Amino acid sequence: MINVDGQSLEILRKRTSAKWTTAPSDVLPMPVAEMDFEIDPAIKARLHALVDSSDTGYAGNNSELRMNLAAYAKGAWNWELDPEQVYTCGDVGVGMVEVGRAVTKPGEKVMINTPVYLNMRNWANRLNLEVVDAQMIKNGMHYTLDFDAIEAGYKSGVKAHFLCNPHNPTGTVFTQQELSRLADLAKQYGVIVLSDEIHAPITYDKSAFHPFLNVSENAREVGICVTSASKAWNLAGLKCAQIITQHEKMKAIVEAMPMAVRFGASNFGVHAGAVAFTCTDWLEGAMATLDRNRKFLATELAEKLPQVNYRVPDCSYLAWLDVTALDLGEDPSKTILERGKLLVSNGILFGPQSQNFVRLNFGTSAQIISQGVDRLALAAKK
Ligand SMILES: Cc1ncc(COP(=O)(O)O)c(C=O)c1O
Question: What mean pLDDT do residues 22-49 have?
Fold first, then answer.
């Protein structure tokens, strides 16, 4: 297995990406979802080749990307998707907004399930949609979909559902039964489900993840998937995501979208994504490290800050921490930054009930995780 691990702080501080340039240099940044790993050498080589041949024009034929994505989906999830129904766009956010625009009118209702990736609400706001929040059911630190709330929302006239599958920041991976039940409800009430599957390849138990469009015929009839290699292979800045349909009705919706949406993807992103979907050895190495990290964080917290509630997530590298017992005031993330010089994501942005939560990124080295917990402990000291 390839060893993929977090780089040293000295190297990371030279990065110019958002994670490493948002805060002053005495702050340890553990917010935005970028990983501190080196990317796969095959992706680097492809990008170098593009630059070396001045191949810096608009994105062209994306058939390699579509074929490689289909092969990856078959290998990872036994999903046989039709590559002819894979369309590119600039990033997942653009894909969700543009598909959302195609299936709703301003003033109509969209469902989200908080606490959830903060841009789900921003996307709805950009489309002038009314947000119907069917909040997740919280059982200890384990969150699941609330089907009563979902059905009530659907009944009230929801037109589209922004589904985070698997779920960020709670780390929940939905079961086949749950997704299939959701598809049935969506069909019954005429709702279109936009399934954001950007975190799917970073599910720890691969077989636990179910692509929405693979759960049933109803799901294919009501669902559109938006995904990207960008989160799992750390390529967010290269700007390329995929919109996937597997039903004539949904295909017609996406094909009627403006051409500009498809041209929003960069050629670098298209190539990097195409290569990434073949880089399964690298991903296995990264997952082994992330698996150690998610458990190491639990050990560190148990030792240094046992009052913090944390459930080891089933997907991704984002830890959802309940810091209520630390009594950090109105805005815990601000207090943590001021006192501990640690930058984490502010829980309230993910949902109205998460004021005493923060999200911490463990896609890094054990050393940085340990430093992060030390800084959190420092912030907790009065
Ligand atoms: C669930 C989810 N969707 C979308 C994104 C952003 O993706 P993109 O940069 O492709 O818009 C993120 C980033 O963390 C995310 O967690």
Answer: 96
Give the structural domain span for 316.
9-40+280-380
Domain of 344, CATH number, reads 3.90.1150.10
Rounded Cα distance between 31 and 360, Å, is: 6
Given a contact cutoff of 8 angstroms between Cβ atoms, the answer to whether 344 and 320 are in contact is no
Read off the pLDDT band of 60 (50, 70, 90): confident
Residue minimizing CA distance to atom 13 of ligand 1: 33
Ligand 1 atom nearest the C-alpha of 241 is 10
Tell me: do 141 and 183 sit in the same domain: yes
Q: What is the per-residue pLDDT across 183-236, written as a single tens digit (0 to 9) for each?
A: 999 999 999 999 999 999 999 999 999 999 999 999 999 999 999 999 999 999
The token pair at 229 is 């290699």
* Residue that the structure tokens 């469902």 belong to: 111
Ligand 1, closest atom to CA 93?
11
The response to whether residue 65 sits with its C-beta less than 6 Å from ligand 1 reads: no
Task: Please tell me the total count of domains within the chain.
Answer: 2
Does residue 139 share a domain with residue 102? Answer: yes
Residue 101 CA, ligand 1 centroid: distance in Å: 18
Kindly state if the Cβ of 228 falls inside 6 Å of ligand 1: yes
User: How many whole angstroms separate alpha carbon 30 and alpha carbon 44?
Assistant: 25
User: What atom of ligand 1 comes closest to residue 164's alpha carbon?
Assistant: 1
The answer to whether position 89 is within a domain reads yes
Dist. CA 182 → ligand 1 center (Å): 22
Nearest-angstrom CA–CA distance, 28 and 312: 22
Q: Which residues make beta-bridge pairs with 226?
A: 196, 243
User: How many A from CA of 74 to the centre of ligand 1?
Assistant: 23
pTM of the model: 0.98
